[in-house]
């Protein structure tokens, strides 16, 4: 288990609950993609006790901040490793297995991604779930705050450099010769 994350993110009640389990290796952490690719005989949907659900919360009011929220959900008993009798827990395990298969096999279309428009406002226009022009300042600062050593550091640094490069190009070019893949960054709301 990522002890650093538990010690810094959890409140006191969560620390009392999860730190002893992490120290005794009753709960562990692995990336689903890494586990699926490096250990082909290991089926994450059959071996995990907890899953982390990441949900983009949305609200009809655009002024209400809606960020990604993470929820730790226990899907199996820690002593017997039997799945809980809830349909939702079995569904999460099945969804995890399906997601790993999809990530290995397909490219998820824009209609299923975070940039997809969700509800409509009273004027009939779609409301964006993630507005890149408003979020890019948050993203760049978050990338630069990332100091923890791990597999994602290089990827995050490269992403931050790319975002800065795109932002500089957009400011310098003034809508001229903009790469079509980044035109969303320059759209007026």
Provide an overview of this structure.
The protein is mainly alpha-helical and 189 residues long. Helices cover 45% and strands 11% of the residues. Strand 3 and strand 4 form a beta hairpin.
Q: Nutshell version of this structure?
A:
With 189 residues, this protein is mainly α.
Distance between the termini: 42 Å
Number of domain modules:
2
Per DSSP, what share of the residues sits in E-state strands of 2 or more residues?
5-15%
Number of helices: 7
Shape estimate: elongated
Number of strands: 4
Report the structural category: mainly alpha
Please estimate the helix content. Answer: 40-55%
* Helix and strand pattern: HHHHEEHEEHH
For the biggest β-sheet, the strand order reads 1-2
As a whole number of angstroms, the C-alpha radius of gyration is 20 Å
Low-pLDDT stretches: 33-39, 101-119
For the largest beta-sheet, the strand count, sense and barrel status come to: 2 strands, antiparallel
Average pLDDT score: 60
């Amino acid at each position: 288990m990522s002890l650093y994350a538990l010690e810094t993110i959890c409140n006191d009640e969560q620390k009392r609950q999860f730190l002893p389990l992490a120290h005794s290796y009753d709960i562990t952490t692995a990336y689903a993609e890494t586990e699926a690719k490096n250990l082909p005989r290991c089926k994450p949907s059959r071996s995990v006790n907890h899953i982390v659900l990441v949900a983009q919360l949305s609200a009809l009011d655009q002024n209400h901040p809606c960020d990604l929220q993470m929820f730790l959900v226990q899907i199996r008993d820690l002593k017997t490793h039997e799945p809980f009798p809830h349909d939702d827990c079995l569904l999460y395990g099945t969804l995890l297995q399906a997601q790993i298969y999809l990530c290995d096999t397909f490219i998820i279309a824009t209609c299923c991604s975070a940039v997809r428009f969700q509800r409509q406002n009273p004027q009939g226009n779609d409301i964006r779930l993630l507005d890149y022009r408003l979020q890019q300042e948050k993203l760049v600062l978050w990338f630069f705050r990332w100091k923890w050593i791990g597999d994602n550091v290089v990827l995050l640094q490269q992403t931050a450099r790319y975002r800065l490069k795109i932002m500089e190009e957009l400011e310098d070019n003034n809508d001229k010769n903009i790469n079509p893949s980044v035109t969303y960054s320059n759209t007026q709301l």
